User: Fold Amino acid ABC transporter substrate-binding protein from Paracoccus suum.
Amino acid sequence: MKLAILFGTATAAALLAGGAMADTLADVKARGMLNCGVNTGLVGFAAPDANGNWQGFDIAVCKAVAAAVLGDASKVKYVPTTGQTRFTALSSGEVDVLARNSTVTFSRDTDLKLDFVAINYYDGQGFMVPKSLGVTSAKELDGATVCIQTGTTTELNLADYFRANNMKYQPVNIDSNAEGEQQYLAGACDAYTTDASGLAATRAAFANPDDHIILPEIISKEPLAVAVRHGDNNWGDIVRWTFFALVAAEEYGITSANLDEQANTSQNPEVQRLLGKTDDLGKMIGLDAEWAKRAIAASGNYGEIFNATIGEATPIKLARGLNAQWTQGGLMYAPPFR
Assistant:
């Protein structure tokens, strides 16, 4: 009996220490606002427009979660975070979810006690240089100065790549993409390295983007993911399946334009469950039956979001590539809604 009591006490203490008693859903509902950690400013992904309204690929995730949980996609407080402050902002409770081009790694997932609930963009690290430099390959950067954000996976990747190719470089440390852009354009570094998507977004914001080229080498795997705090499994489920709803919607042809029609007329059992017509999946995660329908209505399905913010018709000009649906040769794949 004594051992059982001690075990029970120890288990309760461990659960409390691990944050298993946290209830982020209740906190967000009581606050009436979702606190979403985003980039300090990366055009196409997360940046305020001329009127101060945040727009972008990552912003759409924040809006979808707010719509699912609070019934209103506008009920989001966007909290700008740098590469150095983003994980602290999440673990401290300053933000409820982090939707900010952050790579999943072993140490971040385990040592930092974060849960990366869904990969929303498959990426890789690249290099951008002025066209006037005359460089056509990253292997021609021996002795170059390279602008690099501190507190990111790109630091180790850069060191590994240059070491493996028996090259040397001089790092120019920066704290944010805005500083990196400034330093790079001022000539403080020969090259700028970060995720290839980030380079495309940065170049698109230049006055003369054609004066700069992104080199062909991709030197790492950078699966960018949405993160929550470790220990609140229900909140993790909500954010994870909200994102999956956007992916599934594209697969099943559900768009922001035909959402109501699909909800009322589709005979596809998966669509009926996704849009809350049958089974009431929302009840399993503490939401109502139409949580996913609202999430999709916020900014459209995954493909709509991609095309409107960073796709080939935008200044960012990113092809779907690995981020295409699994049915189209990509890696985007939503588990079944059943």
